[in-house]
């Protein structure tokens, strides 16, 4: 039979909620101002941006080549849809004048300036 002191120790402890920290968000831009912008976390934006710019640093790539190269580069360390985030960040970088389309056939992307 438990003693009165052990009964006091087994009282339920009131738990307090741990405050959740909301991740910092960024509102992306779109080159076509009639299109809807997306809000994504700053952390994911920076991660994808860094890798997109690295992929395009040395060469111009078509959209398909760019998205495939990005996917192969980050697939094992990125939590989320690589193509969706890649497209969202690519469009944002186009709107900010960091990436440009070559205007040739087939259409390719290149870095205009580091952003």
Q: What would you report as the Rg, rounded to the nearest angstrom?
A: 23 Å
How would you state the average pLDDT, rounded? Answer: 89
Strand content: 5-15%
Continuous helix count: 4
The largest sheet is: 3 strands, antiparallel
Helix content: 40-55%
Run of helices and strands: HEEHEHHEE
CATH topology of one domain: Arc Repressor Mutant, subunit A
Care to describe what's here?
The protein is of the alpha+beta class and 115 residues long. It has a domain of 79 residues: Winged helix-like DNA-binding domain superfamily/Winged helix DNA-binding domain (Arc Repressor Mutant, subunit A, Orthogonal Bundle). Helices cover 41% and strands 13% of the residues. The protein has four helices and five strands; from the N terminus they run αββαβααββ. The strands form two sheets. It has a three-stranded antiparallel beta sheet with strand order 3-5-4. Strands 1-2 form a two-stranded antiparallel ribbon. The model has no long low-confidence stretch (mean pLDDT 89).
């Amino acid at each position: 039979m438990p003693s009165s002191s052990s009964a006091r120790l087994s009282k339920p402890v009131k738990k307090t909620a741990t405050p959740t920290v909301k991740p910092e968000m960024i509102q992306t831009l779109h080159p076509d101002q009639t299109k809807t912008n997306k809000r994504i976390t700053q952390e994911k934006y920076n991660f994808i941006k860094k890798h997109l710019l690295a992929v395009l640093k040395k060469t111009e790539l078509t959209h398909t080549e760019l998205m495939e190269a990005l996917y192969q580069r980050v697939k094992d360390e990125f939590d989320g849809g690589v193509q969706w985030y890649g497209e969202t960040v690519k469009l944002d970088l186009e709107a900010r004048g960091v990436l440009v389309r070559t205007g040739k056939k087939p259409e390719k992307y290149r870095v205009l300036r580091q952003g």
